[in-house]
Amino acid sequence: MTDENTYDVVVLGAGPVGENVADRARAAGLSAAVVESELVGGECSYWACMPSKALLRPVIAQADARRLPGLRESVQGPLDAAAVLARRDEYTSHWKDDGQVSWLESIGADLYRGKGRLTGPRRVTVTGPDGTEHVLTARHAVAVCTGTRAALPDLPGLADVDPWTSREATSAQKVPGRLVVVGGGVVAAEMATAWQALGSQVTMLVRGSGLLSRMEPFAGELVTQALVEAGAQVRTGVSVKGVTREGGTVVTTLDDGSTLESEEILFATGRAPRTDDIGLETVGLEPGSWLPVDDSLRVEGSTWLYAVGDVNHRALLTHQGKYQARIAGAAIAARAQGVPLLETDRWGAHAATADHSAVPQVVFTDPEAGSAGLTLAEAEAAGHRVRAVDYDIASVAGAGLYGDDYRGRARMIVDLDREILLGVTFVGPGVGELVHSATVAVAGEVPIDRLWHVVPSYPTVSEVWLRLLETYRG
Q1: Which residues 6+ apart lie within 8 Å of 237 measured at CB?
Q2: Are 307 and 147 within 8 A, CB to CB?
Q3: pTM (2 decimals)?
Q4: 3-state SS of the chain: helix, strand, coil percent to 5?
Q5: Which residues have a Cβ under 8 Å from the Cβ of 344 and sit 6 or more positions away?
Q6: Fewer beta carbons under 10 A from the terminal one: N or C of the chain?
Q7: Alpha-carbon gap, residue 456 to 398, rounded angstroms
Q8: What is the rounded CA–CA span in Å between residue 58 and residue 77?
Q9: Could you write out the three-class secondary structure of 419-450?
Q10: Which residues contact 247 (CB under 8 A, 6 or more apart)?
Q11: How far out from the chain centre does Cα 131 lie?
């Protein structure tokens, strides 16, 4: 049985990005259909942002408490892993999406459950769980918001091992006695932090020279130091050559011929776009590819196809995907209503400027690492004449009050020609809350002379802003 319906906008994927595209379309008076093959709310709600941070919050809170005399004596025992996992389950709504479905209904978007595939220009065919087909035609736009999946390496024996990816690492129902984590990026560092604190003996295997290689080098160094002090092993410059599962034990073979045994192994080795089976070939695009877009999030060479969020490979972060969704929704509505887009206005409602200049990110390890904009290496590679200004956050009065033995570092990258900030990085307990101020400074291109008059409250960790500016001015 097949039925056909026409909408102004058809959205493939009901994660936070797809939800926001539909919301912006509806707010502009356009009709919208949303197609989802799994849970409404997507990766972020059930297998990424929310469950991972629910696992990490007790870890960070305990670490902060142990920095304070009078409190540390009360929190010396281990975390109650069962209670932490139960709270995590609450934050994922026990992997049920009723609340998210109700929200979609409240904005007036129609939900189609099933596998959605492009079957020609402006045309999406949805095959429901019962085999029923729905053919959806879009008057103005189809938005691909299908996100990414974990990219697993081509290793002998991997298919038979049933390894963890980010999904299993955030949804596991018991703590493994030993856990091998392959990778050195954000997922690897966060999950190593969480499971070590919950009782696993964690060994990290990093092919490169250190953790968090896309941030300033000191970020990975401080996070590594803390992980090692917590009892984890961090081995750099090593590669996995093969894995086998023998009963309940995973045997990992390294490039030097040595082996490791563990109950589970997590591969956090990158992401791949979920575009391999959505019908891209029917509109002249390569299945399984990233989808390059312009600053209005429209796929290059198309007048109707948009790719929003991780799938376009601009910035693989939920908050950036939601930002892109707001831009895409505004652009789709403007074009549908015949309103000309001001293509030259980089700060207009229809241009994803911040994806180029001020992408913020927080890594919820202990210590936290947060950044906005470019690193020193990225700024130099882009040809800017810059100066890196560093400051020891522990020297700020607010850091000492935050907790004993505070360790942290801040760096700002100054464009010497324009005297604005191109990037800022903080590492230390609690610094995630400093990142938005850095994002404002970078995205807003606030001149150094004006930042001098932005007075931080005393005594807070944010006083590091004043110290960075004083160091720059000399």
Answers
A1: 206, 207, 208, 209
A2: no
A3: 0.96
A4: 35, 25, 40
A5: none
A6: C
A7: 11
A8: 13
A9: CEEEEEEEEECCHHHHHHHHHHHHHCCCCHHH
A10: none
A11: 34
Ordered per-residue pLDDT tens for the chain, 474 residues: 789 999 999 999 999 999 999 999 999 999 999 999 999 999 999 999 999 999 999 999 999 999 999 999 999 899 999 999 999 999 999 999 999 999 999 999 999 999 999 999 999 999 999 999 999 999 999 999 999 999 999 998 898 999 999 999 999 999 999 999 999 999 999 999 999 999 999 999 999 999 999 999 999 999 999 999 999 999 999 999 999 999 899 999 999 999 999 999 999 999 999 999 999 999 999 999 999 999 999 999 999 999 999 999 999 999 999 999 999 999 999 999 998 876 667 778 888 888 888 999 999 999 999 999 999 999 999 999 999 999 999 999 999 999 999 999 999 999 999 999 999 999 999 999 999 999 999 999 999 999 999 999 999 999 999 999 999 998
Residues with Cβ < 8 Å from 222, sequence gap 6 or more? 367, 369, 407, 408, 409, 427, 428
Question: Per this entry, what is the length of the chain?
Answer: 474
Nearest Cα residue to 108 out of 38, 3, 28:
28
Task: Tell me the C-alpha distance between 6 and 31, whole Å.
Answer: 9
Query: Which residue type, as a one-letter code, is found at position 56?
Result: L
Residue matched to tokens 């190593």: 192
Q: Which of 53, 90, 72, 95 is closest to 194 using CA atoms?
A: 53
As a whole number of angstroms, the distance between CA 334 and CA 80 comes to: 52
Question: Sheet holding 368-373: strands in order across?
Answer: 360-363, 368-373, 420-428, 409-415, 386-392
Domains of the chain: 2-41+97-149+273-354 (3.50.50.60), 150-270 (3.50.50.60), 367-473 (3.30.390.30)
Phi/psi region, residue 473 (left: phi>0; alpha: psi -120 to 50; beta: rest), is alpha
DSSP string, 134-183: EEEEEEEEEEE---EEEPPP--TTHHHH--B-HHHHHH-SS--SEEEEE-
How would you label 281-295 residue by residue, b for 16+ Cβ within 10 Å and e otherwise?
eebebeeeebbebbb
- Name the burial class of residue 359, with classes exposed (0-12), middle (13-18) and buried (19+) by CB atoms within 10 angstroms of its CB: buried
